[in-house]
Amino acid sequence: MKLHEYQAKQVFADAGIPTPDSRLASTVDEVMDAVDEIGYPAAIKAQVHVGGRGKAGGIEIATSEAEAREAAESILGMDLKGYTVDTVLVEAGVDFENELYVGITMDRNEGEPVAMVSTEGGVDIESVAEETPEKIAREHIDPAFGLHPYQARKVVFEAGIPSDVAMDVASILGTLYDLYESKDASEIEINPVMVTADREVVAADAVMNIDEDALFRQPELAEMEDEAAGDELEAKANEYGFDYVRLSGNVGIIGNGAGLVMTTLDLVDHYGGSPANFLDVGGGAKAERVANALDMVFSDENVDSVVFNIFGGITRGDEVAKGINEALEQFDEIPKPVVVRLAGTNAEEGMEILNEDLVQVEGTLEDAVQRAVKNAQEVTQ
Amino acid sequence: MSIFVDDDTRVVVQGITGGEGKFHTEQMLAYGTNVVAGAVPGKGGEEVAGVPVYDTVDEAVDAEDADASVVFVPPAFAGDAVFEALDTDLDLVVAITEGIPTQDMAKVNKRLSEVDTQLLGPNCPGIITPGEAKLGILPGNIFEAGNVGLVSRSGTLTYQVVSNLTERGIGQTTAIGIGGDPIIGTSFVDALEAFEADPDTDAVVMCGEIGGEDEEQAARFIAENMDTPVAGFIAGRTAPPGKRMGHAGAIVSGSGTGTAESKIGALNDAGVPVGDTPNEVADYIEDFL
Fold it and tell me: Given a cut of 90, is residue A314 above it in pLDDT?
C-alpha cells in the first residue's frame, strides 16, 4: 500500500525528520490561502500515486500570486497518467545547494533490508542505479539487530556526503530505519534530501510503501489507504477480498491460485487473445465467492468473454459449480459467454452440477482458453 | 527414492486444532503420512483425528520423536511458529501460511542461516513423495510415483503440470512447492541440488514466475552443476510492471528486472527448454525420458 507524499511526510515529521512547511489544498482558493501563509517560492504538488509527477506536469514552483493561481488551476483536476488530481500539497520552496538521496528497501536476494545513500538526489534514482551503480552506497542490515549507528555513518561517508552535513544525514537514515521497521514499510525513501545554504537538511519529498500483509498491525496506516486512488473495479475487488488486476484486453479471466491464473493470462495471449484482468478467487473458494468473482468480471465493460479455470486442491469443484450456477441463473440472458474448466478436487461432482445451458465446458486448460479467445473474437468482429 | 520426505518422516502439525490444520491433518493421515503429533499452545492433552496435541513443538518432538513440522498457523503468529520450529532441530519445516509480513520472514531467514533445518515456504502448498508422504495441502490423487522431480513457486500451477505428466503415465519422485513470497526458505537451487543428487530422479520440471532473480540463479546452477535434464515454465509473461499478481513476490519491478523474458532467456542459455504451455513442458519431459 502506497502512502501519499503528504501522509508519508507527516509520519516523517512526527518522527523528527525536518520537512518544509506545507498545507493540503483541494481548491484554487485553498491553494491561494496556503501560499499566503507559506510565502514564495512555493511548490504545488499533485497528490496521486504516480511516479515521475514532475515530468508529467504534476509539480510546479510558483514565485508569485499569478504563478500560484495558474499552477493551481492547471494541476487541480488534471489527469495524471489515468489518475485525476483532487488534492495538492502546497509547500515552502527550499533554496538548496545539494540534493541527496536516502532510502531503505528489502533486498529479496539477500533476505535483508538494505540502506542506500547517494549524492545524486533529485533525479530518477532507478536510472542512477542502472547506469552508475557506484554512485549509490549500500549497507545491508541484519533484521535481528536493526541499523547500528556506525553502519548509518559508514554508508553516509562511503556515499561521499559533504562532511558538514554527514552526521545529520546519518541521523535521518537511522530514523528512517526505525520507521521502516516499526511501520512495516516495504520501501521508504527521501528523494531529495535538500541541503540549504545554511547547511540544514530537509526532506523535500517522501515515499513510504507499506507491506500489505502487515496492515493488520498498522491500523493507523491502514486508515490512510486512498480507495479513490485506484481503479474503480480494483476498489470493488478489494471489498470482495480478491487479488485482482485490471488489464487492457477483452477476455475476462477467473481462476484459483496466482501461478495458475497468470498462466491462464499467458495462454490467452499465446492463443491470440488479450486478457482483460487477473482475478484469483484464492484457496477454498465457496459458492458465494465464485458468484462475486463473476459479478466483478461482468462489471468490466471491456470484457467480451470469460474463462473460468479452476484446479481444485483446497478448492472444491462442486462448490465452484454451485457458485457459477447461482451467479448465472439470475440473468435472463448471460451477459458474456462463459467457458468453464474444472479439474482436481471434486471436479467430477462439479461437472454433474454445472448447468450446461449457461456455460461452455472444456476438459483441458488449452481448450478452454482457445474457446474463450474465439468467443471474444466473434464479438469484436 | 525421493528428496526431503519419505515414509519414515514423522510429522508435527503446528496449528492442528484450527480448521485448516484439522482438515489437512486428516488428509495427510489418509494419504499415509506419519502425522505423530500436533502443537498448539494451551491445547496440550487434546487429540485431533487420533493425533496427540502438545503445548509446545519441543514437547511434541521429544514425546513423539518427530523430525518435520507443517505450519498451519495464521499469518500474525506464523513467524513466531516457524521460530519455535527452528528451535527444535527438526530436519524440515513446511510453512503453508500465506500473508506473513515480509519483515517477519527476514528475521526468520536470519535465524534459518544459524540452524541446520530445511524450511519450505511460506505461502506454499507443501511437498509430496507420491505413495509415501505428503506434508501440506496438495491433492494427493493427481500424483503418481515415478522418476520426475518437480519444483514450483505456485501451488495450482504445480497441480496443472503434474496432471499433464500423470495423464501421460509419467510419475514423480517428489514434488515441491517453494512458495510465492519474496523471502522463502528452500530456493530453486536447493531443490535442484537435491534432485541432482537423487539417483531416481531422471528429469526435473521447474515452474517459475515473474519477480525476483531466483530463476536466473537457478539457471546458472543448472548450467554449472546439473547433468539431470530440466524443463521449465515461467508464469506471468503478460503481467504489467508494478502490479502485484496475486503472489506477494510476483511483481515485475519498474526497472525491468524479474521479467518473464529475462527468466526464460537465462533458462534457455542454460540449455533448459521453456514451454509456452504446461502441456509443452510435459512434451519436453517425455523427450528427456
Answer: no
Among A143, A265, A343, the residue with its CB nearest the CB of B238 is A265
Please name the member of A143, A283, A343 whose beta carbon is closest to the beta carbon of B107: A143
If we measure between CA atoms, which residue out of A251, A231, A248 comes closest to residue A239?
A231
Q: B-contacting residues of A 133-192, CB under 8 Å?
A: 142-144, 181, 184, 186
Strands B203-209 vs B145-152: parallel, antiparallel or unpaired: parallel
Answer yes or no: are the C-beta atoms of A374 and A352 closer than 8 Å: no
- Tell me how many degrees the CA angle B31-B37-B39 measures, rounded to the nearest 5: 125
Here the cell at position B207 is: 515452474
What would the DSSP string read from start to end of A53-108? TTTTT-EEEESSHHHHHHHHHHHTT-EETTEE---EEEEE---EEEEEEEEEEEET
Residues A259, B215: Cα–Cα separation, whole Å? 15
First to last CA, chain A: 40
pLDDT value of position B74: 96
Residues 6+ apart with CB under 8 A from A239: none
For residue B238, which amino acid is it?
A: T
Task: Quote the pTM value.
Answer: 0.93
Angle subtended at Cα B103 by Cα A262 and Cα B101, rounded to the nearest 5 degrees = 50
**What 3-state class would DSSP assign to A173?**
helix
What are the φ/ψ torsions at residue B96 (nearest 5 degrees)? -80, -30
Q: How far apart are CA A255 and CA B89, in angstroms?
A: 39
pLDDT of residue A226 exceeding 80: no
Radius of gyration in angstroms for the set of CA atoms belonging to chain A, rounded to a whole number: 25
Tell which residue, A160, A223, A187, A6, has the closest CA to residue A105.
A187
Secondary structure class of B39 (helix, strand, coil): strand
- Angle A28-38/A65-75 helices, nearest 10 degrees? 140
**Interface residue of A49, A108, A245, A366 to substitute, partner B, most B CBs within 10 Å:** A108
Residue A82 pLDDT? 78
Identify how many contiguous H helices and E strands chain A contains and give both numbers. Answer: 13, 18
pLDDT tens readout for residues B262-276: 999 999 999 999 999
SS3 (DSSP) at A212: helix
* pLDDT of amino acid A81: 80
Percent of chain B with pLDDT over 90: 91
DSSP assignment letter at A254: E
- pLDDT classification of A255: cutoffs 50, 70, 90: very high
Whether the per-residue pLDDT at B242 is higher than 70: the answer is yes
pLDDT at A225: 84
Alpha carbons B33 and B5: distance in angstroms, whole number: 10
Radius of gyration for chain B, computed over Cα atoms and rounded to the nearest angstrom:
18
Angle formed by the axes of helices A365-380 and A258-270, nearest 10°: 50
Model confidence at B199, pLDDT cuts 50, 70, 90, reads: very high
- What residues in A contact B95, CB-CB < 8 Å? none
Q: Given a cut of 70, is residue A227 above it in pLDDT?
A: no
Distances (CA, A) of A287 to A191, A296, A309: 48, 14, 15
CB A278 to CB B245 under 8 A? yes
> What pLDDT sits at residue A55?
83
Q: What cell does A268 get?
A: 490467452
Q: CB-hemisphere CA count at 13 Å for A367?
A: 8
Cβ contact B149:B3 at 8 Å = yes
Distance between B285 CA and the closest CA of chain A, angstroms? 18
Residue A312 pLDDT: 86
